[in-house]
Amino acid sequence: MKSTIGYRLSAMLGAAMRSTPRSIARRLLIGTSLIICLATIVLAWMIWPTSVWARARELDEAEQRWALRPFGNYQLKVTDKNCPQQIEIRNERVLKVAPNRCDAPPRTISDLFTMIRRDGSVSYPCIYKGCICDDVIYIQANYDQVLGFPSRILVRIRAEPNSKILANRIRWQ
User: Fold this and answer.
1) How far is it, in rounded angstroms, from Cα 156 to Cα 125?
2) Dihedral sign (CA 98, 100, 101, 102)
3) pLDDT digits (tens, 9 = 90+) for 39-56
4) Which domain holds residue 79?
5) Handedness of CA 88, 94, 95, 98 (dihedral sign)
6) Mean of the per-residue pLDDT values for the chain?
7) Which pLDDT score, from 0 to 100, does residue 172 have?
8) Same domain, 61 and 90
9) 91 and 58 co-located in one domain
10) How far is CA 173 from its chain centroid?
11) Count of Cβ atoms closer than 10 Å to residue 20 Cβ
């Protein structure tokens, strides 16, 4: 009796294990797709937060170095959109700007740190106007290794889908 059960079990397993080439290809495709998706998710999880946290930590450390500086008065040379400014600052207040022909207002180092903190924020939300995109600010900054002030700032504005409007439009359809 044991041999009959063993034979039936192996016959059932054999039938289950037999697959057509089409089903094997389907299983391989599904398995490969799952592995690629999982690898992409893991890679994104490892890279993206690290860079965001690293930039935030770098900004915090630069601000700390700037706060420890031994002076309160300084001059700042800024070129914004090919418009040079030389700004004289005392205790984080602008005293004098030469030449003062630029569209951008004169800024202190503290103002620049505040601007850098806006990295990834929406500069022009247009949900009330029904726009399909928001203008998102992306900022890259380099800092002086000793005093911590921003030595170079690159600001990019990129249009990105307005998720609130898109979500409402999907619900309306």
Assistant:
1) 16
2) positive
3) 777 776 665 545 777 888
4) 70-107
5) positive
6) 77
7) 47
8) no
9) no
10) 31
11) 8
